[in-house]
Amino acid sequence: MQSLDEDVRLMLAFREGDPRAFDRLFRRWSGPLLRYLERMVRDAASAEDLVQEAFLRVHRSRERYSPDARFSTWLYRIATNLALNELRRPRHKAVHSSIGDEQALPLPSRGPAVDEVVDARRMGGRVEEELARLPEKQRAALCLAAVEGFSYAEVAQALDVTEKSVKSLVHRARSTLAERLREHWGHEE
After folding, report:
1. Least buried of 16, 109, 163, 167, by fewest C-beta within 10 Å?
2. Model confidence, pTM
3. Is the distance from CB of 103 to CB of 182 less than 8 angstroms?
4. Per-residue pLDDT of the chain (189 residues; tens, 9 = 90+)
């Protein structure tokens, strides 16, 4: 067999009956997958549930697994589909605000000035709010490409769209975010 990445080797070992291989995949990917899903569904408890469900589906699908793509691409495709389904539920239709927007951060005496930290937190919170307002596929494409570091080809596989569609989704997401942030910060001055 051609040179396979470590994750594919682990998944194939799990498919052949090695439960330790699944444990290693879970330990390796549960953290990054949780962060991605938290950005997608904007709810820590739901994201944790979705991580568990994604790995349950990996476990159940082990017999059908084929190393046509990187394991991470397959895993994120499962997770993205779960997140999109979760976002279609009625409780996710309202835009959520970031937790702790008004809470002050304790600062060490040699750290940045308080006003710099407050401005950075406000900007970060605003970016998170605007990210949450993006259409789900745009948000998923942007998070997978810009945050998770997936190539456009891998994002295309994860979202089950063409690479050209991914480029368009990411471009529209970035443009929309930039426009909304310009509008917001322009009105506050």
Report:
1. 109
2. 0.69
3. no
4. 344 689 999 999 999 999 999 999 999 999 999 999 999 998 999 999 999 999 999 999 999 888 888 899 999 999 999 999 998 887 644 444 444 444 444 545 455 555 554 555 555 566 788 888 889 899 999 989 988 889 999 999 989 999 999 999 999 999 998 888 888 666 554
